[in-house]
Amino acid sequence: MDNFEFLSPTKIIFGKGTENQVGQEIKKCGAKKVLFHYGGGSIKRSGLYDKIVASLKETGIDFIELGGVQPNPRVSLVREGIKLCRDNGIDFILAVGGGSVIDSSKAIGVGVPYSGDVWDFYAGKAEPKETLSVGVVLTIPAAGSEASKSSVLTNEDGWYKRGLNVEIIRPKFAIMNPELTFTLPPYQTVCGASDIMAHIMERYFTHTPHVDLTDRLCEGTLKTVIRNVPIVLEQPDNYDARAEIMWASTIAHNDLLSTGRVGDWASHGIEHELSGIYDVPHGAGLAVVFPAWMKYVYKEGVDKFVQFAVRVWNVDMDFEDPERTALAGIDRLKAFYKSVGLPTSLKELNIPDDRLEEMADKCTAGDTQTTGNFKKLGKQDVLNILKMML
Ligand code: NZQ
Ligand code: ZN
């Protein structure tokens, strides 16, 4: 196990009716004026918008609002949000929605006190030193942004999708009521589950030895998602199953599962090129990338893939042929994706084969950088994996 520091400071407020506490929680943070940031309208249809407004008014919190965050959030709206905050003396951002709204909020938060352009942080040209505080009411378990140190934005100028990873952007609090996820359409539900599973698997596949505890935590979290997704597809308003998945989304990505080990993250890098150019849901893209990545790299550490197959997918161990066991685990993962309605090929995502080289190039900064750690991948490796996804 490697040395590590772990701090996950986001206060989690979990359970039925908790969204009504939002005004009180913001007050505890000492906020004077709030930007209420949300997406394309699901919160208005579900009635959550009215509850948030009521809670803010009840606690006497002054606020303005900015809706319209798109999935795969854009830097243009972030720039608009930054101006709005500066013009109105905003000192706190309330994100009500999923990863896209939260990431847009985090970006506005670091952009307000910065004199340059906010994209500098995503292009790796500058590191944010301060931020406005962000609070969250989560409506979709998926990205884990409610407690993560990440924000992912898309720049329409070149369709670059890039992440910022820095401790100061972890939200102050995350209100998580599983009932708010009952309205999720099946496809969004499974895209979210795929992202949760991916966050665990990115951490799981490592060469760091003696990580028994975190291996078992990863396996347990994965098995929880795998067990409960079919239940919520049958019964969208099953509170207990929705609750298991919602808590898994946070645990998968608040860095508890990466303590003492090196993660991989190549599949996320490759997926961000897919959703950057083609605007597909991140979780759908990951369901296509992950099995291909696994088949490309498993020989670098067959034992880990055997462990994954046996412990997570209950594959019978073939002592004569460990590689067969490893491959059976990958096949089970792919079969699970298919069984819940996720795509497993670029074709199913309606992605043609004419820009694979461009994506491989962007993913490796023109072949000047590698991506991933389990196996360090250059441009040709990424291209090979993309071709396996056709
Ligand atoms: O915009 P509205 O109308 O609210 O609809 C949303 C959106 O269309 C809908 N939705 C959300 N909650 C709902 C609902 N519909 C009905 N009922 C509800 N309760 O779902 C759609 C998707 O929302 P989005 O926020 O885009 O989903 P998700 O949470 O999967 O976030 C995806 C984004 O997060 C990034 C992804 O790359 C992508 O841009 N990620 C962020 C990470 C982070 N910050 O730590 C890590 C991840 O790896 C990921 O890259
Ligand atoms: Zn993800």
UniProtKB/TrEMBL annotation:
Residues 9-178 form the Alcohol dehydrogenase iron-type/glycerol dehydrogenase GldA domain. Residues 190-388 form the Fe-containing alcohol dehydrogenase-like C-terminal domain. Keywords: Oxidoreductase. It comes from the Bacteria. PROSITE patterns: ADH_IRON_2. Pfam families: ADH_Fe_C, Fe-ADH. InterPro entries: ADH_Fe/GldA (IPR001670), ADH_Fe_C (IPR056798), ADH_Fe_CS (IPR018211), BDH-like (IPR044731). GO terms for molecular function: alcohol dehydrogenase (NADP+) activity; butanol dehydrogenase (NAD+) activity; metal ion binding; methylglyoxal reductase (NADPH) (acetol producing) activity. This is Iron-containing alcohol dehydrogenase. It comes from Mahella australiensis (strain DSM 15567 / CIP 107919 / 50-1 BON).
